[in-house]
Fold this sequence. Notes:
The structure is a single chain. The chain is mostly beta strands. The chain has two helices and 17 strands. The strands form two sheets. The chain has a 15-stranded antiparallel sheet that branches. It has a two-stranded antiparallel ribbon with strand order 11-16. β9 and β10 form a beta hairpin.
Amino acid sequence: MAEIPERKKRRMGDRRGMETKHPTTSTKWPLIKSKQNLQITRLKDTDLFTVQNFFTSAESKAFIKAAESIGFVHQGSLGPTKGEAYRDNDRISVNDPVLAETIWKSGVHKLFSDIKIRGKVAVGLNSNIRFYRYKVGQRFGRHIDESVDLGEGKRTHYTLLIYLSGGFKLKAKNDTSSPKDSSSEPLVGGETVFYGSRNAVVAEVAPTEGMALLHIHGDKCMLHEGRNVTKGVKYVVRSDVAFA
């Protein structure tokens, strides 16, 4: 894939003009348990880390069910020739401060207790919560995530992704689901890949059900992409960590 000119990269985050807002008053979101003993894996020399089992399997499946009940809307892009990343996925965007605060207080706040940016500390999540669905053949090309001014002195500096689906996990003894059940079909592909200088791969994160991925965005955001899904369905919930 041809390298995209530097001056155009900043236009490759979410296209705000294309956002589809859905009312949340009738949406009953799943309960989220408070997270203890979070397993954090930090990538050396980067502002990127993952957290295994941030959502339980039950929570992940419940969020997929809730999102599907709302209904996804397809989102594309004009493509690299127009200064935008290639994009082909399905999306829901909701403005829900309560959901954002619930996810934040369930454990995200613990991950940022010792992280400061320009003397500012993390204070919560962007209330704009997005759900992404990638079916077979869909992907999100190389892009960066922009920092967003939320007003009242708050600005986003980190992207939060929580994978709601992933490859097979070991089945519990009492799990009687059939291997042919579409809900148990393993996800193949859909890795989130980060690039450094000269397009060298810095990190390749395979989606795992319930895992959270956090990375700095804005001026220091690494070029990254969501690879093509070749089997199963990739579900992701995304927000941004705000600092003040």
